[in-house]
Amino acid sequence: MKLIYQKMETHKIPLFKPWVSEWMARSVIFSILMTCLYSFAFYSNPATVIRFYGIQPGDVEYGAVVIYGSTVAFLALDFRIVKYFAPRRYLLTAIAINSICSLVCLYSGDWSVFIVCQFVQGITCALMSGIVLNLVFPRLHSTRARVIGYTILYAGIQISAPFYSIYSSMVLHYFDFNWLFYGSTILLLALTVIVLLTMNDSARFHKKIPLYQVDWIGYLLYVVFILTMGYILVYGRQLGWFSNNRILFLLLFVVLILSLFVIRQLTLKRPLINLVIFKEKNFIIGLVLLFTFYIFKGSTGLAYGYLEVILQTDPLQTVPIWITVICGTVISMFATSRFVLMGYNLMRIILLGFGIMALYYLSMLHFVSVKGETADLILPLFIYSVATGVLFVPIVAFTISAAPPKIAFNASLIGIFARFTGFTASLAFNNELQAFIRYAVRKKVNESVDEINVKLSGTLKGINQIYLHGGKDIYITKDTSGGYLNKLIKAQIFARATHDYYDWMFISVVCVMGGILIFPQIKNVILKLKRGSIPY
């Protein structure tokens, strides 16, 4: 009888052992979070991935979509699974699977195997982040504690990209790509030791709930929809969008899968995601803001492309920029959380965040040129990091607070899907917009660069003279100077296209700010964060 009673009360046993202090427990939780995000470090230097696996830039983008989409889809299932397994065993299982995937990638060197492992590691990322969320938020009872919890969680997520970019830049400067897998394995082994030392084996978050009426079919439909949609958005332009039969077939397939998923969720008693949440107007507005935020957030890829292509910046030289981004994100997020707690209107804070984002685009318009220095981008990217820090917590808090308490968890699941969709759509949107702008710029350049252009012939003669003075043969000089001129023209096209791109993004963010000001129903909102709500 005593044994039965002990089993029934395991959900009341503290997860951490008695000797573990509160600050040590928080450190362990944060280390779990940062470790589960390590798999995204593989995409911090796309050029290295392309060279190592012999793939195209679009393949790298789809790899990021696979691990992100796998995480998003499994989080919906994790809500039920975490109530069945003991957290420590659940966490150790995730770590073991993640380690196996890293070792398989280390010894295979095959891109297809890497993608499969990324899908599995996306699941383990969901498992580990689910543990983190269940460790943090149910213990936060006041609005103040929950806002601070949101800030710490999302600050960790936001800074993980620049943090691992610094790490991978240093590793890849001295070693090859495989050393990232070595690092992953070592980090996971260290986390295993920490978990074994600090956590109780029998502790639980909840009473053990059997895995009955779990919507496994709904999960399969959801993950297939996510990955197929990601494929269309990443490879659509490369394949010619609707002129390609494969894209047309996949588009019809996505509509079919989505229809089946929605019908299933509306008819099941215990759906994977409760779609009733879409009846809340403020929640839909929050999703639109999240999606829009991620579109703008994805525009920094061109800034780093400018560093690599025009300024020829070594990855190690970008470390000061990454550090600046980390500092700007942390400072702005904690400052914003203070304003949220002081009762400032959320929409005004969000409006301020988009205003700072507009300032970032203006600063990029000022600094982008063919003659620049890496240090020139420190200020613009600091402004960008401040903008993201100001926007993230208020948008998430607004979206979550719009949900009724009984289905608040579903708001979190759909919220992370909106973030994923914004991220994936930003890849397609940025690629399409950049291609359109570069075509327009290249057309103008071709119209002006011809044999009767006096400036062109003068420039070419000047380049010839430089090579001749350097001791080059006259025939070699003609070929070399021609190649150098083509390089100059390409740099000019890239710089001009980058400048025009930021023009478009500035206009877009101003339109978003205008939209927020126009709609009166979203000007005055009250922060209502429910106890026990877990924001993914």
From TrEMBL:
The chain crosses the membrane at residues 23-42, 62-82, 89-107, 113-135, 147-167, 179-199, 211-234, 246-263, 283-307, 319-337, 349-369, 381-400, 407-429, 504-522. GO terms for cellular component: membrane. Gene3D superfamilies: MFS general substrate transporter like domains. Pfam families: MFS_1. It is found in: Membrane. InterPro entries: MFS, MFS_trans_sf. Keywords: Membrane, Transmembrane, Transmembrane helix, Transport. One of its GO terms (molecular function) is transmembrane transporter activity. It is a multi-pass membrane protein. This is MFS transporter, DHA2 family, multidrug resistance protein.
